[in-house]
C-alpha cells in the first residue's frame, strides 16, 4: 500500500486523460489506473475520428489517445496499467484494489470507466465469439478479407463498422431492427451510397450458425413480414450499443436503472462525497469523445473545489 494521494482516476479514455491533464497542471499528481488490456478506451479501436475539434483533416483514434496520454504524463500524471477490481469509496480515504494485487488510497476518486459492448444474446453468439463473432471491426476486420460479413445495429457504430468492412469484405449486409436508423444523417447517407453494403431494415438476427471452423451463416427474420432466411456469412459484427462499466462499484454510488452513474446536475459529483464520475459511464445520452473530455475537465475542477473545501 502506497501513500494516500490526492486523487485517483479510474479509466483512461478522453474523460480520464482530460481530468489527468487538468489535475496534473494543478500540481495534484493524479494516479491514472488505465486498464490492463484496453488503455485509451474505445477510441483505440476506432479508425479515423472526424468530429473531434482541432483536427480539420481528422485524426486516427489511437493517435488521439496517445497524444492525450503524453499530454497527461507531461504534467505529472502517473499511469498504472491495471484493472480496478473493487473499491471502498465511503469515508474520507478511498481505497482502490487492482486485479494485479496492488492497492491505492486517495482523498478523491474520479470514475471514468466508460462502457462495454452490448451483446445480442442470441444462440451462437457466445459459442462463436472470437471465431467469427466480433464487436470491433477495426480489430478483427482483417480476418474477413474477401468474405461475406453481417453487421448488426442501426447506430453510428454499426454504420461506421459497415463502411470500414466494405473496404475489406466481399460483401456487407447490415441488419437494422426497426424501419429507422438511429445513426446520424451523414453516416446513413454514406452507408446507403456504398455499393458493397446491403441494408435490411426491420430485420433481426435470431441465431448465428457455424461449424468447427467458425461462423457460416446468420438466421434472420423480418419483423414486419415474419419472413425468415439464412444469410451466408463468415463474420458477424455486433454493434448494438454500450453497457456502462459500473458493476465494480458494487452499488456504492447511485446508478440509474440502466447502470449509468448518477451525477448532481451539471457537476460530476456522485452520491458519495469525494467520488466523481465523468465520460460515458455517467452519460446515457451524448456519449461522444468530446463530451467525455468536457466532463473530464469538469471532474478535475470539481475535485479541486472539493479538496479546497476540505482544507477550509
Ligand atoms: P446506439 O446509438 O445506442 O445505437 C444502437 C443501435 O443498435 C440502434 O440502432 C439500436 O436499435 C440497435 N440495437 C440495440 N439493441 C439491439 C438488439 N438487441 N438487436 C438489434 N439491434 C439492436 O449505439 P452506438 O451506435 O454504439 O453509438 C453510441 C454513441 O456513440 C452514440 O451517441 C453515437 O452517436 C456515438 N458514436 C458516434 C460516432 C461518430 O460520431 N463518428 C461513431 C460511433 C458512435 P434501436 O434504434 O431500435 O434502439
TrEMBL record:
Keywords: Disulfide bond, FAD, Flavoprotein, NADP, Oxidoreductase, Redox-active center. GO terms for molecular function: thioredoxin-disulfide reductase (NADPH) activity. Signal peptide: none annotated. It catalyses: [thioredoxin]-dithiol + NADP(+) = [thioredoxin]-disulfide + NADPH + H(+). One of its GO terms (cellular component) is cytoplasm. Residues 6-296 form the FAD/NAD(P)-binding domain. The keyword Ligase does not apply. Homodimer. This is Thioredoxin reductase. It comes from Bifidobacterium cuniculi.
